[in-house]
Design brief:
The complex is a heterohexamer, with 3 copies of chain A (397 residues) and 3 copies of chain D (119 residues).
Chain A (H helix, E strand, L loop, with lengths): L2 H28 L5 H28 L21 H20 L9 H24 L4 H5 L7 H19 L12 H20 L7 H29 L4 H15 L8 H21 L11 H19 L2 H4 L10 H30 L9 H6 L1 H6 L11
Helix pairs in contact in A: 1-2, 1-3, 1-7, 2-3, 2-4, 3-6, 4-6, 4-13, 6-11, 6-13, 7-8, 7-9, 8-9, 8-10, 9-10, 9-11, 10-11, 11-13
Chain D lengths: L2 E8 L4 H10 L5 E9 L5 E4 L6 E4 L2 E11 L3 H12 L11 E7 L1 E4 L11
Antiparallel strand pairs in D: 1-5, 1-6, 2-5, 3-4
Helix pairs in contact in D: 1-2
The chains are: A mainly alpha (397), D alpha+beta (119).
The complex binds adenosine-5'-diphosphate (3 copies).
One adenosine-5'-diphosphate (ADP) sits at the interface of chains F and D.
Chain lengths: 397, 397, 397, 119, 119, 119
Amino acid sequence: MDSGNTAWLLTASALVLLMTPGLAFFYGGLVRSRNVISTIMLSFMSMAVVSVVWILWGYSVAFGDGNAWVGDLSFLGLRGIEPGDDMLFAVFQMMFAIITPALITGAIVERFKFTTYLVFLVIWITVVYAPIAHWVWAPNGWLFEMGALDFAGGTVVHINAAVAAVAAAILVGKRRNPGLEPGNLPYVVIGAALLWFGWFGFNAGSGLAADGVAVNAFLVTNAAAATAALTWGVLSQIQNKKMSAAGVATGAVGGLVAITPAAGAVGVMGALAIGLGAGVFCYAAVLIRPKIAVDDSLDVFAVHGVGGIWGALATGIFTVSAFAGVPGLIEGDVEQLGIQAVGIVATLAYSFIATFIILKVLDLIPGLGLRVSDRDEDVGLDVAAHGERAYVSDGAD
Amino acid sequence: MDSGNTAWLLTASALVLLMTPGLAFFYGGLVRSRNVISTIMLSFMSMAVVSVVWILWGYSVAFGDGNAWVGDLSFLGLRGIEPGDDMLFAVFQMMFAIITPALITGAIVERFKFTTYLVFLVIWITVVYAPIAHWVWAPNGWLFEMGALDFAGGTVVHINAAVAAVAAAILVGKRRNPGLEPGNLPYVVIGAALLWFGWFGFNAGSGLAADGVAVNAFLVTNAAAATAALTWGVLSQIQNKKMSAAGVATGAVGGLVAITPAAGAVGVMGALAIGLGAGVFCYAAVLIRPKIAVDDSLDVFAVHGVGGIWGALATGIFTVSAFAGVPGLIEGDVEQLGIQAVGIVATLAYSFIATFIILKVLDLIPGLGLRVSDRDEDVGLDVAAHGERAYVSDGAD
Amino acid sequence: MDSGNTAWLLTASALVLLMTPGLAFFYGGLVRSRNVISTIMLSFMSMAVVSVVWILWGYSVAFGDGNAWVGDLSFLGLRGIEPGDDMLFAVFQMMFAIITPALITGAIVERFKFTTYLVFLVIWITVVYAPIAHWVWAPNGWLFEMGALDFAGGTVVHINAAVAAVAAAILVGKRRNPGLEPGNLPYVVIGAALLWFGWFGFNAGSGLAADGVAVNAFLVTNAAAATAALTWGVLSQIQNKKMSAAGVATGAVGGLVAITPAAGAVGVMGALAIGLGAGVFCYAAVLIRPKIAVDDSLDVFAVHGVGGIWGALATGIFTVSAFAGVPGLIEGDVEQLGIQAVGIVATLAYSFIATFIILKVLDLIPGLGLRVSDRDEDVGLDVAAHGERAYVSDGAD
Amino acid sequence: MTMISIEAVVRPERIHHVTEALESVGCQGFYYSNVTGEGRQRGVEVFVGRGGAMASRHSVPKTIVRTVVVDDMQEAVITAIIEAARTGDKGEIGDGKIFVTPVTEVVRVRTGERGETAV
Amino acid sequence: MTMISIEAVVRPERIHHVTEALESVGCQGFYYSNVTGEGRQRGVEVFVGRGGAMASRHSVPKTIVRTVVVDDMQEAVITAIIEAARTGDKGEIGDGKIFVTPVTEVVRVRTGERGETAV
Amino acid sequence: MTMISIEAVVRPERIHHVTEALESVGCQGFYYSNVTGEGRQRGVEVFVGRGGAMASRHSVPKTIVRTVVVDDMQEAVITAIIEAARTGDKGEIGDGKIFVTPVTEVVRVRTGERGETAV
Ligand SMILES: Nc1ncnc2c1ncn2[C@@H]1O[C@H](COP(=O)(O)OP(=O)(O)O)[C@@H](O)[C@H]1O
Ligand SMILES: Nc1ncnc2c1ncn2[C@@H]1O[C@H](COP(=O)(O)OP(=O)(O)O)[C@@H](O)[C@H]1O
Ligand SMILES: Nc1ncnc2c1ncn2[C@@H]1O[C@H](COP(=O)(O)OP(=O)(O)O)[C@@H](O)[C@H]1O
C-alpha cells in the first residue's frame, strides 16, 4: 500500500459517506415541513442498512469473481479481504452502494411506507445495484469488457437510481397534497454544498490513487458543477427574472451527475461543455416533469436520469485518448459513443424492470405494501411514521 | 515524516475537530429551543478553551515523561516539540482533549452556569483528562504497561466523560422544566452525521498512519455505527411501531462509541457484534434512565458510558491476535478481558471522584456556583447567559 | 508528484471549497430572516461564477508569467497545465479565488442587486483579485520579490476583500431597515465551524506539501482561532455580563484571518499572541463600526480588514528565521515589518480604488445599477430577487 | 347589517380544504396561523429525548383561520367550514370548533372605506 | 347563558402553569401561540449583529392563550390565569393582560352542536 | 367608557411603522404575530420544487397586530394604523384591514386591576 494513495482513499471514502447526509438535507429541504424528518431518514437509514448488507454479501455479489453478469459469494462477510488495498476498495465502494438507493427516495417522499422501504433497500442492493456494479466495474463484467467508460458511476449510480425512482413513483402513486414550495431552502443549499464537497471524493477517488488522474478528476468535477449551476441560474433569471436558489443548487447537482462517468476521461474544456449541457438539459427536464403523470416528486429522473444519460453520452463524445486511452467523438471516433449507449440502455432496462418487480411483490406482501394510509399522509410522515416533529418551539417546547 | 501518513493525520485531525461542532448540533437539537444556543456554546467553547490549555500545559501533563500516573511539565507551551511527527501527534491528541469535556455537557444543559463551566474546563482537562490519557496512552502509563487496549479512546474519552457527566448531573440537580421533545430534530441528525464523518478521523487516525490498520479501523467504525443505528431503529419500531430519528442517530453514536477502543483490534465480524451490542445496551439504558433520579439530561452515560464500557469489554472479547497482537475471549483467552475491566473501573472511579470534588469546590466559590437562577432557567439560557435568541423571525427580524 | 502531498492538497482543496458554503451560512445567519437565501446565494454563486472565470482566464492573469504587476494569457483555459502538480496548484488556488469575493458580500447584504453582483464577480476577479495574487504569490510579482510574507492570503484574500467591501458599502449605501439581531444564530455557528474546519486546508495546504510546515501551520491555525474566540468571549462577558455566541464565532474567524499570512512563519507562541491580538482588535473594531457612516453590514472590514492587517503586521513581528527564513521584530529585525506594511498599503489602495471604479461604472450602466428598489428591500430579497422563502411552514407548506 | 368574525380551530392538514370552502362560499378575505391546541383529543404519541420511549403530548398542532363577514353569511360560512374540516362523515375528536364574535367596525387600509363595503 | 372568549397574554415560560390552571378550573379547551409583545416592560437586552454590543429590544416574546367558556366561568378562569401567570407574589412588569370579549355562537365541527354544549 | 380591541392585518414589512405609530398615538400595549393571509391580492410568484418554474401562491405572509384600548381612542388608532400601513399615497391591494371588536373586561395580571386602568 502506498501511504499517499491510502490517505487519499480514506479521505475520499469519508467524503462519499458524507454525501448521504448531504442528500438527506437536500431532499429534506425540498419537501413540506411536516415530512422533513421522514425524508431525511430515507437517506440516513441507507447508511445503516446498506453498510451491513454490503459487508455481509453485497460486496461479494458485486465484486466476487462470478461471471459476466454477477459476482459470486466468495467474499461473503468480506472473508479473505485483507486490510490493504482490497479492503480499501471494498470500503470506498460501500459508500457508493449507500448513496445510490438514497437517491431513489426523492421520487417517493411524503407517502412511501417506511418499513417497506427498509426491506426494499436490502433487496434492491442485492438484486439491482450489485449486479449492475459488476457489469460495469468488475474486470469480467460484460460492460467493462465491452469497454464502457463509467469512471465514477454515471450509469451504476445515477442512471440506475433515476430509472428505479421512476418505477417506484409509478407504483406508489401520486402524493395527495404536494406542497407548493420547498419547506426549508437553507437545507437544500447546505445539502447541495455537502454533495459538492463529497463529490470530490466520489470522482477524484475513483482512480484509486492520489495522482494526476485524481487531480484532473477533481478539476473537471468542480468545473462541471460550477458551469451547470451557473447555466441553471442564468436560464432561471432569463425566464423568470428571478434566480432560484433551489435551481442553482439543482444545477450544481446536475453538473456533478453529468461529469461523474467522464471525470477520468475528459479535460477541463470538455468539463465546461458537459456542465453547460447538464444545466440546459436538467433545467428543461425539471420544467417538463410536472406535465407528466408520474409524481417523481423531487425530480430524481430529471436530474440524475437526464444528467446521467447526458454524462454517459458526453463521455463518449469528449473522452480524449490522452486520458482514458480511447478516443471520443471529438477525436473523430464514434465507437465509444455507441458503447456508452449500450451501457445506458442496459442499465435503464434492467433497473426499471427489476425495481418494478421488486416493488410489485412488496406491495402484495401482507403487512408490507408501498403506501401509507391517507390519514398518515395528511398528518405528515414525521409524526405518523417516526413519532417526531422536526421543530418544536411552541410554549410546550 | 512520511508524506502519506502526514496527509492522513492532518486530515484526521481536521475531521476530529469537526466532531465538536457536530456534537454541538447533536446536543443543541435535543434541548428545547430556548436553550439551543447555550447548548451549542458549551461544546463550541471547548474548542476555544481546551486548545489553549492543551498547548500551554495540557499536552505536557498528558504526554510528558513523568511517571506511571501523570506526565511532567517538560513540554510546557509545546516547548521542544518540532514540526514533525511529534507535533502532529500533539495536534491530533488536542482534538481528542477538545471533544471529551464537550461530551460531558449533555448532562448539564439548560441549567449549568456558563462562566463556571469555562473554569471547570480548564481544571478538568488538567486534573482528570490529561492524567487518564497518560495512564492509557503514554508508554509509561500504568494501564498502557498493563496492556489495556484502548485504540482510540473508549476509556479515556467516552467512559471518562460519561461518568464525569453523572457526577455533574448529580451536583447541578434536575432541570425545572425539561422539554418533552427535541427542539430541532434536523440538527440532531446533521450533528450525528458530522460525528460519524469525523469519527473516521478519530478511529482510523489513531494508528497514526495511512496503512492497513487505518483501513481496517475505518471499515469497522462504519460497520459498528451502521449496525447499532439499525439495531436501535428496529427495536424502536418493534416497541413503538414508529422509528425515531433521534433514536437511530443515537444508535449510530452508541455504535461509534463502542467500536472506538476496539477499532485497531477487531475484524469486521467483531464490529458487527459490537455494533449490535451497542444498539441493544444503549437502547436499554436510555429506556431505563428516566427512572433514575439523576437528570443526565441528554443521556450521556446511557450512550457514552454504557457504550464505552461495552466497547472496552468487547475489545477484550473480540480482539484477534492478527490485529492487536493479543488474543481475546473468542480466541479462548480471558486475560485481556480482565485487563480491560481494570481500565474501566479505574477510569470510572477516578473520573467520578475527581470530577465530583472539582465541581463541589467550584460550587462553593463565591461568584461561581454551578446553577443559574430559577428565573434564568425559566427564561432560557440563550437569552439569560448569551443575550441571544436562536431564531428571530417576527416582524422585528 | 508525491502521492502524500497530492493526497493532502486534494483534501485541502476540498476543505477550502467548503469554506464558501460555510461563509454563506455564517453570513446568512447574521441577516434578518427575509434575506437569508439572498445572502447565502451571494456566496454560493461565487463558486459557480469564479470557478468558470478562473479556468477560462483568471488563473492565467494571476499566475501567467507576465510581469511584476500582472500575469499574461499564456494559460488561457488552463492550456498547457498538465494533470500534475501544476494543475493541483491551479485547483487549490481556484478555491481561494472563490471565497475572496464572497467575503466582500457581507458588506452589501440585504440591498445589493443580484444580477449586478454576478457581473461584478467576473470583473473583480479579473481586475482586482488576479493582479494582487500575482503581486504576492507569482515568483516575479513585485511584492513577492520584495520579500513580503503572505503564507496563505492575509493580504491577497482578507485585506483585499475587506477594503473592497468598504468601497462597495459606500457606493450601495445604507440599508433602510437593518434588523436588530441575527436571524438564525445556529447558522452563524455552523458557518464558523465549517470555516474553521476548512481553514486547515487554507493554511496547512498553502505550503503545498504534507510536511512539517503543514503540521506547524495546522497547529498555529487552531491556536490562533481558539485564542481569538476565547478572547472575544471573555471581553464580551466582562463588558456585557453575557457571552455572545455570534461574538465568539466572529472571534474565531478573526483569529483565523490574522494567522493566515503568518501560518508558515510563526511558532505556536506567536500564534497565541496573534490570536489574542485578533480577538482584541476585531472586538474593538466591531464595537466602533456602528458609529461610522458606512454600513459595512456584517463587519467585513472590522474582521477581515483589521484582522488581516494585524496578521500581516504580526507576521513581520513574530516570524522566526527557523520557519520562514527571515527574522521578525521579536528576533530584533524591523525590516520585515516594513515590507509587510508596504504590502498592506498597496493592497488597500489598489483594491479600494479599483473596486470603487468598477462599481461606479456598473452603477451607471442601464439595466444594472447597484441597488434594489425600496420596495424589494422592504419585502426582502429572498422573495424579490430569488422568488423564494427560506422557511415555509404555514398551513400551505 | 352588522359584521361578525368567524374563527375556526381546525386540523392543520385540513386548512386547504377550509380555505377553498371559504373562497367558494364567497369570503372576501381571511387569514390563518398555526397554534397549539388542547381539547378533548388527548394528544398524540411522540418520542421523547433521544427516542428511547414515547409519551403522550397533550397539546396538538392546530390551525386557526379567521374571516370577518357580514352577518347574513354566518350560516353559509359555518356550514362550509364544517364540511371542509370534518374528518370522514362522522367527524373525529379534535376536528375543531368555530367561534363567532361581533365586529363593530371594519376598515380597509388601502382606501379607508368603512363597514360592510370594507369586508 | 352567554359565552365569552378569554384571551391572556402571558410570559412564554409561564404557559405551562397557565394551561394546567385552565385544565384544573374545568376549561374544555383552549389554544395558544407565540407572539411578540410590547407594553410597559421596556424590552430585553440582546446582542446585535456580530455580538460586539448590546441593544434594548422593545418587543419581547409573549404567548397568548385563548379559551371560550360560558359566562359564569369568567371569574374562575381569570383568577386561575392570574395565579398561574404572575411572577412571584407581587407580580412584575410584563406579566401580561387578560381580555374578555363576547362570543355569540360556538359550533363543534365534529357534531355540529351549537352554543353552550359545544364549548 | 367601554373598551375595544383593534386588530389590523398588515404587510410584514410595515409592522415597524405600525408599532411606532401605535406608540406615538399613546397605545399602552399591543402584540403582533405572523400569519398567512388571502384577500384580493392574488398572491406572489414563487418558485416551486427544484426551481424550474414559478407558480402563483394565493396566500401571502401578513402580520396581525392587536391592541386593546378605550373606546374614544378608536379613531386615533385607526388613523395611525392606516397612515403607517398604507403603501405609498394611494395604497395598494393587500395593504390590509382593520377590525374593531368589543371588549367587556380587561385585567392586568400583575396587579389584578380591572377595566380602563388595566388597559
Ligand atoms: N372552549 C374552547 N376554547 C378555545 N379553543 C377550544 C375550545 N374547545 C376546543 N378548542 C380547540 O379546538 C380543538 C379541538 O377541540 P376538541 O375538543 O379536541 O375537539 P372536539 O370538539 O371535536 O372533541 C382543541 O385542540 C382546541 O385547540
Ligand atoms: N392594551 C393592550 N392591548 C394588547 N396587548 C397588550 C396591551 N397591554 C399590554 N399588552 C400585552 O401584554 C404584555 C405585558 O404588558 P406589560 O404592560 O408589559 O405588563 P404589565 O401590565 O404587567 O405592566 C405586553 O408585552 C403586550 O404584549
Ligand atoms: N374579511 C376579512 N377577514 C379577515 N381577514 C381579511 C379580510 N379581508 C382581508 N383580510 C386580510 O387582509 C389582507 C389584505 O386584504 P386584501 O383584500 O388583499 O387588501 P385590500 O383590502 O387592500 O384589497 C388579506 O391578505 C387578508 O389576510
